[in-house]
Design goal:
Largest sheet: 5 strands, antiparallel
Helix content: 25-40%
Distance between the termini: 32 Å
Number of domains: 3
CATH architecture of the largest domain: 2-Layer Sandwich
CATH superfamily of the largest domain: ATP-grasp fold, B domain
Strand content: 25-35%
Oligomer: single chain
C-alpha cells in the first residue's frame, strides 16, 4: 500500500517509528508536512497539492495533527478523505477530541466516568462553579492547553476564585474540575487501537507535581490495568470515534475517570515502557481495515 504520514517533523520519534514499521511491512510510506499541503476543492476530482504538484493517490493516511494546527490539519485530513484515502483517525473524530469541552460532553452522554467538571461564562457564577465541583482544591484548565501547559491546581477557594477571575478577565475559556487527590499525581495512559487496549503505562509526576505528563519530567512504567479500566478506555475511544488514541485515566475512589482522549498519542514513552511495537500494531490495523472511502465516523456529535 501507499501510505502518507501527516506530520510537521519527520525527525520526531513517533513519525520515524511509523515510517520504519510501515516500510518493514512492505508499504511505501511518505512523510508529508501538513501545513505545506493545500487543497484543490472541486466536485470533479478533489486533490491535495504539495510543493506545486498534485499528490499521488494514497491508500491510507496516518494523521499526526498537533493541537496548534487542529483547524487546518483536520481540513487537510478531510480533503484526503474526499480523495478516497482511508484515514486512521477521521477528521470529525480528531476535532471532537481536540475540543476539551465537547469531548467531556460526549463522554458524559455515554455515561463514562469523569471528574466532575464545570464550565461557565459569567464571573457571578464563580462561587457556585467552585462549589459544584466539590470545592478546593480543584483543577483549572485552558480549553486549548496541551501537555500539561495551562493546567493550574488551586489549593484554596480564594486562590481558585482569583485564577478563574483572571482567566475570565482576558476572555479565556477554561474548565474547572474536581481534584482527584487519591490519584497521587499519577495517571494511566491506555493506547487503544481498533477498539482494543494494546498497551498501558502508569505515568507518575515528579514529587510535588500533580501533572504526570512525560513532557513535564514525569516517569513511566508498564502497568496492569483492571477490566473496568480497559472497558472505560475502549468506551472513551468509541465515543470520540477514534481508531487510534491515547486515553488518560485517573484511579479514583469511585473507579477510573477519563482526563483526556488524545488523537495523536506519542509512541516513544509507551513503546519504551512496555517494549511493544505500537507502530507495527497500527499498520496491522490499517492492513485489516483499509478500504477506499471508508470514512464514515461512527457515533454522533
Amino acid at each position: 500500500m501507499k501510505i502518507a504520514i501527516l506530520s510537521r517533523n519527520k525527525r520526531l520519534y513517533s513519525t520515524r517509528r511509523l515510517k520504519e514499521a510501515g516500510e518493514q511491512r512492505g508499504h511505501e510510506v511518505d512523510v508529508i508536512d501538513t501545513l505545506h499541503c493545500y487543497m484543490d476543492i472541486t466536485s470533479a476530482k478533489p486533490m491535495v497539492r504539495f510543493k506545486g504538484e498534485a499528490l499521488p493517490q494514497y491508500d491510507a493516511i496516518i494523521p499526526r495533527i498537533g493541537a496548534s494546527i487542529s483547524f487546518y490539519g483536520t481540513a487537510v485530513v478531510r480533503q484526503f478523505e474526499m480523495t478516497g484515502a482511508f484515514s486512521v483517525n477521521e477528521s470529525v473524530a480528531i476535532s471532537r477530541s481536540r475540543d476539551k469541552l465537547r469531548s467531556m460532553q460526549l463522554l458524559s452522554r455515554k455515561g463514562i466516568g469523569l471528574p466532575r467538571t464545570g464550565f461557565a461564562h459569567s464571573p457571578d457564577n464563580i462561587k457556585d462553579l467552585i462549589r459544584n465541583v466539590g470545592g478546593a482544591p480543584l483543577v483549572i484548565k485552558l480549553l486549548e492547553g496541551t501537555q500539561g501547559v495551562g493546567v493550574v491546581l488551586a489549593e484554596t477557594g480564594k486562590a481558585a476564585q482569583s485564577v478563574i477571575e483572571a482567566f475570565m478577565g482576558i476572555n479565556t475559556n477554561i474548565l474547572v474540575q474536581e481534584f482527584i487527590k487519591e490519584a497521587g499525581g499519577a495517571d494511566i495512559r491506555c493506547l487503544v487501537v481498533g477498539g482494543k487496549v494494546v498497551a498501558a503505562m502508569k505515568r507518575q509526576g515528579q514529587e510535588g507535581e500533580f501533572r504526570s505528563n512525560l513532557h513535564r519530567g514525569g516517569s513511566a512504567q508498564i502497568t496492569k490495568i483492571s477490566a473496568q479500566e480497559r472497558a472505560t478506555a475502549v468506551a472513551a475511544a468509541k465515543a470520540m470515534g477514534l481508531n487510534v488514541c491515547g486515553v488518560d485515566l485517573l484511579r479514583s475512589n469511585r473507579g477510573p475517570v477519563v482526563m483526556e482522549v488524545n488523537s495523536s498519542p506519542g509512541l516513544e514513552g509507551i513503546e519504551t515502557a512496555t517494549g511493544k511495537d505500537i507502530a507495527g500494531i497500527i499498520f496491522q490495523f490499517i492492513e485489516k481495515n483499509m478500504r477506499p472511502f471508508n470514512t464514515r465516523t461512527k457515533g454522533k456529535g
